[in-house]
Queue: 3 jobs
Job 1
Amino acid sequence: MVVSHQIPMGKYATSIDDVRAAAKRIRGVGHRTPILTSKTLDQLAGRKLFFKCENFQKIGAFKFRGGWNAISMLSDKDAKKGVCTHSSGNHAQAVAYAALKRGIPAYIVMPNNSPGVKLEAVKGYGANITLCEPTSEARQTTLEKISEKTGAEVIHPFNNPNVIAGQGTAALEMIEDLGNLDAIIAPIGGGGLMSGTCITTRSLLPNTKLFGAEPKGADDAYRSLKEGKMLPQESPNTICDGLLTGLGENTWDILKDHLNAIYTVSDDEVIKAMKLIWERMKIIIEPSCATPVAAVMSPEFKELKGIEKVGIILTGGNIDLSKIPF
Amino acid sequence: MVVSHQIPMGKYATSIDDVRAAAKRIRGVGHRTPILTSKTLDQLAGRKLFFKCENFQKIGAFKFRGGWNAISMLSDKDAKKGVCTHSSGNHAQAVAYAALKRGIPAYIVMPNNSPGVKLEAVKGYGANITLCEPTSEARQTTLEKISEKTGAEVIHPFNNPNVIAGQGTAALEMIEDLGNLDAIIAPIGGGGLMSGTCITTRSLLPNTKLFGAEPKGADDAYRSLKEGKMLPQESPNTICDGLLTGLGENTWDILKDHLNAIYTVSDDEVIKAMKLIWERMKIIIEPSCATPVAAVMSPEFKELKGIEKVGIILTGGNIDLSKIPF
């Protein structure tokens, strides 16, 4: 592999060396997830697609990578007080699972309207759950109280540089396995996965295009990139429950410099893409995970020239099977 | 690998050499499907499980193997008149796809109450479909008429020795990849997969236990093994739409000598097992495919001693997503 450090060390919160170090920590603890292909999907997209299956990752989502990397890096002294975060989704499971693996307490703040299936999953990893009102303020203040009281380290779901480094290992494995790719596309919520993917890809494959995918109903990154400044996520409205959050300073800092474009997709397109993957590839992906699939199937994306091999990060497969949207 | 020919050549319709030859024909045309594992499933079963994912095979089921092997073996003279079969399920798709690959016509007789999704799939591979009344007699006489009129070769879904040889390649790949296994378990419909699996496994791993799984509502093989003679399938009643048929002379001949046991499972157990695989492994399997999973989760199976590593053939993932049974 040609290693070309296109990004000066120290320019961002996370470097390619951080990603490589994260990969070593993750090896043997997480799964090196398979990359699947489908001739039918290739035909529909008009190019070759490579699906990095993070739905097969520990806890069913890429979030394991960042959670484990950040938690395994804590000193024994810091770690023994435990870790905490607020999340109703895959990051909560990632932190709970990583804490269980390290043998330290996890404190998870979850909104009191979280689906039972998600509460059960987090409980299943032995975490202490605190329910709060379903507002950003309540989540933040509850988290601060718990952190203060317990001394537990707050693990931010995407702005934490070690989380970004962990998420960058998915692209690292994909590039190691496939060599060159003309483009890589992944969903953007808080931007942890996408910024880690940017660091990895720009360092190893400087000419590869980097695309984000967002729901039209939560398109803050799209608007931010257009305006050239980080805009907040305002009243998101989408089926993609993993992409409701706004960006962070550290993730935006990377995304603004390296993203080639962001494609936005409707919830209808997401549901169609999700069903397509279930039907043709026989694997389960959650709605947020279907955004890049919907993007590559869009007429706009199909018009792109000079892009033959596209890597798609399938981010997760955690969906309540009693609430399938088709 | 220790090659121990426990089965004299010529004893059955299909030999290990036939399976090996089939493997060569299938290589590069079909997928060498992955073998997945799950710690959660291992814990639930109380032993190590290895899932051979034929739901990722061409046409979404292992049936591709037998269909392709039989059709690719036809002489050019025989092949040019085409192939025909009656099936409303995965074998229909396998024959249609294999014929398309070989560039010859396929004539498929399907009952006129076949779900639209199955008709579409077979049509999608360019086959000529003839609808008939949904009775065994109508299917058989319609097929005979078509074969007579066109000269197309009838490809029996399971009693054809070359189909059995093709189905035996799934176990062959599994044994090549994993080495020793204490047991292999697969569903039994007409017995094509299970008899091919017996030939392969008894030849390569003489001491490995061979188990079948059947729905309680279509337990002809279970009853046959108990009685020591091939009994017909009588008014089957199960959600497992791929396991409704009776055995054939060639498959029974092998099964009666080599099966260690057949486990029968209720439709409720099948649905529970299917949901478990969807939720925890993030892959889609159809009801028939869930029977061996349900079997290994049963108290009866858990009591077995001396069986640590179990290979499970996940046979297919073709399910109408608008009719998920949970």
Job 2
Amino acid sequence: MTEPTSRTELSALGEFGLIERIASRVHLQHTTSLKGIGDDAAVIDPQGLHQVVTTDMLVEGVHFDLGYMPLKHLGYKAVAVNVSDIYAMNATPHQITVSIAISNRFPVEAVDELYEGILLACRSYGVDLVGGDTCSSTSGLVISITAIGAANKEDLVYRNGAGDNDLLVVSGDLGGAYMGLQVLEREKAVFKETGAQPDLVGHDYILERQLKPEARKDIIELLKKLGVKPTSMIDVSDGLASEALHLAHNSGTGVRIYDEKIPIDPSTYQTARDFNLDPTTCALNGGEDYELLFTIAQADYEKIKGNPSVTIIGHMTDKASGSMLVDKQGGLHELKAQGWDAFLKK
Amino acid sequence: MTEPTSRTELSALGEFGLIERIASRVHLQHTTSLKGIGDDAAVIDPQGLHQVVTTDMLVEGVHFDLGYMPLKHLGYKAVAVNVSDIYAMNATPHQITVSIAISNRFPVEAVDELYEGILLACRSYGVDLVGGDTCSSTSGLVISITAIGAANKEDLVYRNGAGDNDLLVVSGDLGGAYMGLQVLEREKAVFKETGAQPDLVGHDYILERQLKPEARKDIIELLKKLGVKPTSMIDVSDGLASEALHLAHNSGTGVRIYDEKIPIDPSTYQTARDFNLDPTTCALNGGEDYELLFTIAQADYEKIKGNPSVTIIGHMTDKASGSMLVDKQGGLHELKAQGWDAFLKK
């Protein structure tokens, strides 16, 4: 990150000036993006594919704290969490629209930083920024992004397709983003009290999980390559427990998750211990990992067995068997969603 | 409007509870809406048509004042301003996503009122609410809506297609929404100072223009019926001057608007006079009228001549002739956009 060296007031540019400034940095790359910024609406040619639409809103003081979240990372993350939802449908993101409400306390250079991150993510995920809205805010920064993807109808994966005996699989590892947040919150509190500079040494992995999460484009590509079409899928934004319950509820099944199978990175594990937190609880309820949680037919087991990018953590059951966490001794505990809730957090 | 008679805290429902409450009131009506609320993303079947996407964000204290804007009207207006952008592409809106950031000071009943207006607009304009996001806000209410429409490629109308001699046409009348806002602001100030109840008698038309604007679906249908395809089109959100300049700039032409031709409703005219404002200035720069401004080929003149829904207010010219307002004596005045600017207003 570079500190802005000059300060230009937003009012000096005005809304149209700001839109032009943003538009000048955008280069459309998809043949499906027929018209981007600069008309009443963007135009997309679906080229025979189904369209998939998702939207997420990020609010300063609720979803992010600019005290430790650099604007460039925030822009990147705002795009990543949206395209993650598109991948969770087994679709490919093609376009995004970005709306921001921003107060005059931000200079134009801050908006540049934000869009630098947004456009970096656009390149990473191969999406075009085709529209949006910029307006002033009376207080905090609000970012609302809509992502549009495409897929063949037969490739789409919903939350409701899991069968009673399907295997439950998750990509990557869990709980890291939550532990990264704990470290950032702790150092912020220390800084407030003592003025001491943040001590973030040794926490690179979990900080990156929190500040610059990646949507798992690679997993969608891997599954395609392996010839595996999940029977149901969701991305892990609220926590493993909440997402597994969504799959079970929507599919009309039960679910068993084996505690010892849940993938947790050593640095996540160690930091949780340092904070006197149970690593499994962090993985189940922490959220913001943006991994993909999906079910596959037993017949596909051989295709993914041993692949280092994914872990089989359990299986679906009939509905009557309920949704359970299985501990290391084989004991059953009811699975509960204690994940992040927008209206309880603050 | 009915006053909420009970008060349920948002935290009592939680985010998932609120989403379920909203989803239970939504009934998909389009064959193109394959999947609505309840998965990682909505799914749309384009059925061979091009897709048109637009987004708008409304911020409390910037775009609306809940002191005089009932939540139901706010919901309706938030949808109307978005579908207006879809009509301005000569397309038909099919889907919307709605994201809201709302503080705990609002009860569940307030959210119900807001969505009552949103769903009323969905029925009026024939669109499906297929997704969105709900989150908490640390201060004001923020609404972000994305509208998705569809059209045959050859029917789409952009801002850049006007020819040098095309006629400039506007639907309805202008300046009313701005004058409605002036009346509301005045009565609010009086109420603050003296506690006197608002005197809104006789201002029905302009108040409705401000509080419950309609997108001009009927004009798109009329033009189709008359066999007129505009050469360029835009909706009037920032004011006639700003929009006419957009058409001229994008089309590489000049423009002439005749002062005496600008359609202004008698009640708009009278209220402007009462406020010591020039009615023409209100029409040129007031904004929020959500009428359609478009250009047509001279050859189409006979088809729209005398139609009470539209008014020919001028014509395009070669670029070198500039963008001009022609006064009643034939004098030329440079057309300037002094419309609403998001970063200057507050």
Job 3
Amino acid sequence: MRNFLAIDAGGTSTRAVLINSSGQCLGYGTAGGGNPVSRGFDAALAALLDASRKATGGTAGEVAEVLVAMAGASLELPTHLFRDGFAELGLTGKVMIESDLLATFYSGTYHDDGLALIAGTGAVGARVVSSRLEAVTDGTGWLLGDNGAGFWLGREIVRAVAAALDGRGQATSLTLLVLAELGVTLDPGERTQGRLRAQQQLILKVYELPAIELSRFAPLVFQVKDDAVAQDIIDRAAQALTQTLLAASRAGNGPGEADGRQWQPGAQPLVFGGSVLTKGGAVAAAVVGRLSAAMPGAGGPAGISPVLVEDGVVGASVMVLKRSGIQVDAPIFARIQQSLAALRGGK
Amino acid sequence: MRNFLAIDAGGTSTRAVLINSSGQCLGYGTAGGGNPVSRGFDAALAALLDASRKATGGTAGEVAEVLVAMAGASLELPTHLFRDGFAELGLTGKVMIESDLLATFYSGTYHDDGLALIAGTGAVGARVVSSRLEAVTDGTGWLLGDNGAGFWLGREIVRAVAAALDGRGQATSLTLLVLAELGVTLDPGERTQGRLRAQQQLILKVYELPAIELSRFAPLVFQVKDDAVAQDIIDRAAQALTQTLLAASRAGNGPGEADGRQWQPGAQPLVFGGSVLTKGGAVAAAVVGRLSAAMPGAGGPAGISPVLVEDGVVGASVMVLKRSGIQVDAPIFARIQQSLAALRGGK
């Protein structure tokens, strides 16, 4: 029985699991952001080691391999420095860097072919074929895309409010929620230079924020009820996310190739991750509806059942076993899920 | 006969005119950015004085009043410092700060009631009633709005290209133009980590630019022919700009008030400014078409004839006379236009 470390390194937090070759999770630890692109290499490595130390409980047992799932896994990283760092934790083998997309996918399934859609602050679709990323769609960041994700939602919300305030757009309950969030009061009679004072204040306050902070307004769209503007934003988010998913599902066939590599609804898993899909139920349901309409063979919305996953930590655990030559089947997958849930529940 | 200085102070350049009370422009000068918000107060004042010195030709004649048109005219500025600065140029009266929107409006008309739409990097609509800004719509900046303007167009273009490259969106001729602008070559076979290398390069290059720089791609949308994606972007820009204009045209009537203050097509002028409207003919034509459809009484597109203006320098000249109690009529307006064109033609 060998032990492994599986690490899900995100931009703001890092999760590490000590797992043995039968899929039993033995220890779990968390730390701050572990992505070298956003945090710098030294701080990221320190976070990986911090979380790992907590997972191993400080014992100096042997660790056969380490797998780190992170965004930007395709970057050339000085992995020998990773290896040196993990030596103190008993690492005898190598450090493998894998995509966070694959880790999210494997958090929902142990199969090696399927489809994933993740919508957190950003949005990305992935087609997995034979355990590799065959196609990645969107995930192009806040300026170029990430359509339907948290930043996109927040931006559409504040744009709708700005439009409602000067009569370009429909009135919406989002207005008072956004203004309250920014500490601005709305007095319909207070105007200067042709503008409502509330709109001038909205402009001032929004440009004081770093642009990416607009994602903080995203949850508001799910709070209002019977609001046509909010519903339109949710519909357009679902439409964009469905396009991202459909583009990923079609990918992998060269010109003239048969549909053999295309995603098969029902036969292959569909994994949903990220707060917009896992917490904003309306978006996930609308994506399923649109997807089933676009795939007549799927047997309607009931034929498409996405697995919702919280993060990539189960998937990193699945991958460290797979990449070390251990076959992960249904019982092992269930053991990973259950033993990890028990460890995380205790945190 | 008194002399006046009229100054159109923009973010990147400043234009000054020496004009007499009969509307004869006597001198013209330009300098760098003269907006205190974007340039700082001292640099802005230096630019205003630099352009003014060129306009007065260095002669120490008397200047009765100075009018400066600029964005952010509603800000509280230390105008006594302006006055001290202009004393060396013979100023005997006051320095008036006015909105750049009004200056653009008056560049197209000497009437005191009408409508203006400006779409340069940003987009803003204005309803002018009795020589004052009755309503200002949009102009809310690149994150909150400026819908249909240069930054908006540039962003939609790069988003469409990002979508075309991973199959979320339709193929478009914009792709090769944008990639060429960024020095990226497109090899449809070159993929890593599930992505086209060209898309990875697009992402890298776009995020190296300051966000607001996306406006540099705007002209590309007018270069491609018979391209459905480009046409869709132009249509949506025209739709957004029409909403901005219609919201401004409706404004000024309180609840239950009659339509007396509403813009009357044909009877009151419509002024178009900014490069998206004055250089991208397709957008201006589409806005006129949509506006006439929304205003059945306007007599079709032929009943709506916008006056295109290049900047706010004619308008600043009109305003310095009006604000000094001089009535500007058709002959004086024509004299301002003609004498200024002669001076500018000689530059």
